[in-house]
Amino acid sequence: MVSDTEARVALIALTDIRKQYGGKEGSPAVEVLHGISLTIQAGEFVAIVGASGSGKSTLMNILGCLDKPTSGSYRFLGRDVSQMSADELAGLRREAFGFVFQGYHLIPTLDVLHNVQMPAVYAGMPAQAREERATGLLTLLGLGDKTAYRPQQLSGGQQQRVSIARALMNGGQVILADEPTGALDSRSGAQVMVLLNELAAAGHTVILITHDDKVAAQAHRIVRISDGEIVEDAVQPTSQEQPSLATAGTTMPTTASVAAGGSLSCVPFGSIGTEASALSASWLQDIGTTLSSAWRALWVSRFRTFLTLLSFIIGVASVIVLVAVGQGNNEKLLQQIALWGTHRMYVGPDVDATTGLRGEFYERDANVLEQVANVRIAMPYLAESALLRAGGETFATDVWSVTADAPVVLNWDVQYGVFFTPEDDDALAPVVVLGKVARERLFPDVLPQDVIGQYLLLNNTPLRVIGELAEKGLVSGSSHDDDLVLVPYSTASQRIFGKPQLSYVSVVVDDLDALDQTVKDIEHVMRQTRRADDFRVSNSAAVVQGKKEVMRQQTMLLALIAGISLVVGGLGVMNIMLMSVKERTREIGIRMATGGRQRDIRLQFLSEAVVVSCTGGVAGVVIGLAIGALLMLWNVPVIFSVRAMLVAFFCALGTGVIFGIMPARQAAKLDPVVALAGE
Ligand code: ADP
Ligand code: MG
Q: Rounded CA gap, 596 and 203, in Å?
């Protein structure tokens, strides 16, 4: 008998195990286990019995590799457990052990089916096989119709059976049950004991921890522990009456059905503690499972999740809207610049600071300016108000007196007819070119083409319409130039208004880069010829440049604001995750007890951060687009930028991940036994 036992490698061999609590940070060290030596063979049904506080749970945590002894050796199938890494221990828990706790330790956010499946998820079993096995086990334990229930919706006895199904999910060769009946009424307790008996009969090693002698009496071997020491270790007489399902008064499956189904039967140990089976699962399935469980966890605290989502949404949406509005304004400015013409300057009269006299400009000033280097065109320009009449219609508007260069200088072409020529100008030709609005007001019932050739009166001077300008439309939202009429400068000054003074000279330069020098040259030559400082050069190109710079700075400022709100979103994620880790330490413990590796835990919390930030990012893009569309309705210039959307989305994702890493690591670093005791 003795030689027979020695010949086999013991499943569990404890030698002189001691466990101290405290001793750190000034708290007194208390030894709870005083040198436990215990050998358990595969297939045994052992009850560890003792009074409350005698150290049973401490011993079980050590047996289940949830906790480490302070000293002594623990060999599992001959392997020294103290030499195993955290992941190897997780592997051992996953492949070899099945835990059943007094408080059931089910994850409240997962339904029954997913609670049972969890150890297989960590073992890398394919989803379909996993689901079939979990459903099979639950059916076998009489819970086939409860798979979609949440743990809180079940009675204590039912929850305990769910936790037994979970313990069996990966085989559960060694069932470690700590007071499994402690929280149950006697009938439910009896059902659980029947199950444990059946498992023992089916070849599982069952280690049952209890303070109750009556419960312990059902085991084949009783180890009595008192104040951290084994005081008795006895094998029960085989005549022990096994309770039957009939006496438990339930509709539980019988041993026969278990044997037929085979699901409770114990399969021999495979490669325990290796990662081989974990690698077989498909990556995609793993990701799907992780994300869906992340989503469930977030859904449970949905108000908090929503608040975090909100900060991401605000961040992403504001990036998109602000960039779109900024770009819209920029584009509008560019359009205005195109309309004004970038190469244009005005040289006109001003008040001389020393004499106090206002200068007057004549055609000769334009001729002087035309000679300055880099000046392509210097066009005399006179703006006057006048009354126009045609047929029965009258229209008071602005009359611009310009030369044949006007289409180039004003960057404005005719739509119908022609513009006047230098010859028209020299000959004081009585011709006029109309803006679209002016034409509509004066010739409301005539087709635009037919207006060409018609006559009108401008301050009583008859003029022939020779062309119509292209429509400019509303440029700055306030005024438009389409009500103008254009006449040759000579005609206007000599025949219509009879005044030689100009409003100003419009100057077009060739080389924009030489603009500064050209301005200096103009000022120099004007001072020389006019012998006074009674003029002013306004440089629209420089104004445009300045406006562009202001726009650029505004856009940067807006981007900065948006960036800040993204960081705030990231802090929100960190906060939600840290709170989540705190609240869910128990869950983390359960996951570790069922074989979750540190990286599984890390991945789970990180994926929650990713789910939040991704959802927030997508919602932010959608809402940003919606706000932009609304602004468009209000005539705000908006140009959406795909690049801004991508940047905002990936920034949101990035901040989510970066701020999620810390809490995820914190969760993964938790000690299983500490986490299990947490709440
Ligand atoms: P049992 O399960 O037999 O009731 P436990 O193993 O839970 O007993 O506890 C044994 C003793 O160890 C008790 O006195 C308990 O107060 C102490 N103890 C258990 N866990 C801790 C801990 N984490 N820190 C300090 N003391 C502990
Ligand atoms: Mg206990």
A: 25
Q: Report the separation in Å between the CA atom of 564 and the middle of ligand 1, taken as the mean of its atom positions.
A: 49
545 pLDDT above the threshold of 90: no
Q: Which residues fall inside 5 Å of ion ligand 2, going by CB?
A: 57
Length of the chain: 679
Q: Which amino acid is at 628?
A: G
What b-and-e string marks burial along 477-498, b requiring 16 or more CB atoms within 10 Å of the CB?
eeebbbbbbbbbbbbbbebbbe
- How confident is the model over 33-85, as pLDDT tens digits? 999 999 999 999 999 999 999 999 999 999 999 999 999 999 999 899 999 98
Percent of the chain beyond pLDDT 70?
A: 88
What does the mean pLDDT of the chain come to? Answer: 84
pLDDT in tens, 495-521: 898 888 999 998 988 887 788 888 899
Of all helices (H) and strands (E), which one includes residue 431? Answer: strand 431-434
Give dist(CA 505, CA 434) in Å, integer. Answer: 22
Q: What is the 3-state secondary structure (H, E, C) of 52-102?
A: CCCCHHHHHHHHCCCCCCCEEEEEECCEEHHHCCHHHHHHHHHHCEEEECC
Amino acid of residue 83: Q
Task: Please report which ligand is nearest the Cα atom of 58.
Answer: 1
Percent of residues in the chain assigned helix, strand, coil, to nearest 5: 50, 20, 30
Domains recognised in the chain with CATH numbers: 44-58+90-278 (3.40.50.300), 297-333+546-677 (no CATH), 360-531 (no CATH)
Contact 149 CB / ligand 1 (< 6 Å): no
C-beta 170 within 6 A of ligand 1: no
pTM of structure: 0.65
Statement: residue 336 has pLDDT above 80: no
User: Which of the listed residues 58, 179, 670, 676 should we mutate to test ligand 1's pocket, taking the one with most ligand atoms within 8 A of CB?
Assistant: 58
3-state secondary structure 226-290: ECCEEEEEEECCCCCCCCCHHHHCCCCCCHHHHHHHCCCCCCCCCCCCCCCHHHHCCHHHHHHHH
Centre of ligand 1 from the C-alpha of residue 55, in Å: 6
Tokens describing residue 128: 């379909």
Among 365, 169, 374, smallest CA distance to 277 is for: 169
Tell me if residue 649 falls in helix, strand or coil.
helix
